[in-house]
Every structure is written in C-alpha cells, then in structure tokens.
Amino acid sequence: AAVAQMQTIQAKNLPIKYIPKIVEGYEYALGEWIESTGTDGKSKVISCPALTGTWPLIDKCNNYACILFLKDKIGDEQKDIYLKLKKAIDSQMSPGCN
Prior knowledge:
The chain is about 20% helix and about 25% strand. The chain is an alpha+beta fold. The chain starts with a helix and ends in a 7-residue tail after the last helix.
C-alpha cells in the first residue's frame, strides 16, 4: 500500500510554483515523477532524474527498470539522451499495456 501511494500523483490540479525543466510534462508523486499513467490513472512509467546526471526508471508496462548515469550531462541534453535510450529499449519490448 505504501509503494502504491508513493506512485500516485500527489499534485493533480494544484498550482505548482516551480518544476525543473528536465521533468516538465511529468506529474509529481512522493519522491518520484510519473511520466505516464494508464486509463485507470495508475502510474505506468516512473522516474526520478537527478540534476547531477543519474536517471532511474521503472516501466511497469514493459516490465523493466534501469538506471542511466550521465557524467557531465545536464538539463535538456540529459533528458534527450534518456528519451533516446528509453525509446531504443522500448522498441525491443513487446508492449505490456497501453
């Protein structure tokens, strides 16, 4: 129950004064960011990018987790590399959910 609560959007429809550019478009949960949700509102992809270059990810639909370490990469460059890596991994998977 605690993990399910952690992976639930916590600030839906609430004003947020600041969101780091690297996580724009994601929803905030407890200590992590929800990149996408299913039609049931439950999280499908969860991540927690650090501004220092570490980017852990859990993809519950495709049933994998990974951690990306990007030394000397920050901001948009870090997110671009992350999105390319995730796309490459996902292209090798059979989609588990929509």
